Amino acid sequence: MFENSSEELAYHKLLILYILDKINMDLTNSQITQVVLETEMMNYFSLQQLLSQLMESKFLITYKDSDREYYALTQKGVETLEYFLSRIPENSTKKVDEYILTNKENLLAETQVKSSFVKQSDNEFIVNLRVIENQCNLIDLNLNVSSEKQAQLICNNWKNNASDMYAEVIDLLISNNH
């Protein structure tokens, strides 16, 4: 299929970019690993090495949200994929497309509740709490708190009780009992 190993490396890098582009959401390392291993595209160690190389080349970036690290395509990654898309064999893109169609809901389910905080100053932290369903924000709440301990506690409580809290907020906002 490939004439040399550098061509195979390029193919696998394009495949990783294709997966992130096609699924149209940022993924954790374990989610990318799940897609790659379940479609039998490459082995785990090759994937980890290629993810690092894609980061070094600025085709991917990572960011933290809710104590999880996500991989996201950069503009350079998108442009490279568009330019070289024809180099990915059609049977590979079909395999990825079918996998994503079948499993996207499972991958999405893992990313529905998000919480994070940033330090504004020594005694000011902005906490962001979100619930996402079908890639739409059901709730996106920013809170200003005075300590990192409070911010961390709020994030942890949100992760563990988001659905109940969301339901309570909606109930409070729509009830006529003042």
UniProtKB/TrEMBL annotation:
Q: Which residues form a coiled coil?
A: none
On the tree of life, the source organism's domain of life is: Bacteria
Q: Which InterPro entries match?
A: DUF4364, WH-like_DNA-bd_sf, WH_DNA-bd_sf
Q: Which Pfam families match?
A: DUF4364 (PF14277)
Recorded protein name is DUF4364 family protein
Per the UniProt record, the source organism is Romboutsia faecis
